[in-house]
Amino acid sequence: MLRLVGLVVSIGLADSLNPSTIAPALYLASGERARGRVVEFTIAVFAVYLLGGVAIALGPGQLIRSLLPHPHHQVAHIIEVAVGVALIVGAAVLWYHRKRLARRELPRVDPRGRSSWILGATITAVELPTAFPYFAVIAAIIGSGLGPPRQVVLLVLFDLCFVLPLLGIIGTLTFASGRADQVLGTCRRFLRRTWPTALSIVLMLAGVFVVFLGATGFAATHHGNFGRVIRHLRHFIRP
C-alpha cells in the first residue's frame, strides 16, 4: 500500500505542473473577487477529475479486475515499471520540443468572463481524455487488487496532489494579499518561459522513481518465489 501511495503522489505532483489549469487560475487571480473565483475553479477541477477517475476505476476497471480475481503482485510491479517508462519517454519528448512549446501562448481567460465553476469543469472535461498520467495511475491502482474504498482514497490523494499548485495560488491570495499580484505575476512569467523544461524534469524524476519502485518490488517478489521453490525442492528430495 505504501509503495502505491508513493507512486500516486509522485505522478500526481508531476502531473500538477499543468499549464492548462495553472495558467487560467493565475489569470483568475488577477481579476475581481480573485480568491473566490480561484477557489471555485479549483473545486470544479478537483471534482470533475475525481468523478472521471472514479467512473473509470469502478466501471471498466472493476470489469477488468473481475477477469483477474486474484491479481499477482508481479503484475502490479510490471504495471509500475511500464508506467515509469512511459513517464520517462514523455519527459524526453517534452524536453526535445521544449523550445517550440515555450514559444506558445499559455491559455488565457477573461477574469470577468464565464463562471469559474464552468471554466474549471470545462477545461478538466476536455483534458481528461488525454490525461495519460492519470490513466497510468488508475491502471496501477486497479492492478494492485485493492477494494473499491481504498481505490477511491488513492484517487482522492492523486487529485489533491494534482490541484496543489492551485491551492498554492489560493494560499498566496489569502496570506500574502498585499504582495499577491507581484508574487503571482512572477509565477505567471516563470510559467510562460519555463513550463516545458520544468515539467520534463519533474516527469523524468517521477518516472525514474516509479521504475525504481516497480523494479525493486518485482525483484523482491521474484526472490521470494525463488526461495519458496528451493524450499519445496529440498522438502521433496529430503531422504
List the helices and strands and how they pair.
Elements: H1 2-16, H2 19-28, H3 34-58, H4 60-67, H5 73-96, H6 98-102, H7 116-127, H8 132-143, H9 148-162, H10 164-175, H11 180-237
Largest sheet: none
SS elements, strand count? 0
**Oligomeric state of the chains?**
single chain
What count of domains describes the coordinates? 1
Q: Helix- and strand-based class?
A: mainly alpha
Description of the molecule:
The protein is mainly alpha-helical and 239 residues long. The chain has one domain (2-237). Helix content is 82%, strand content 0%. It has helices at 2-16, 19-28, 34-58, 60-67, 73-96, 98-102, 116-127, 132-143, 148-162, 164-175, 180-237. The longest helix has 58 residues, at 180-237. The model is unreliable at 229-234 (pLDDT under 50).
Which key terms come to mind for this protein?
0% strand; 239 residues; 82% helix; mainly alpha
Offer a concise description of the structure.
The protein is mainly alpha-helical and 239 residues long.
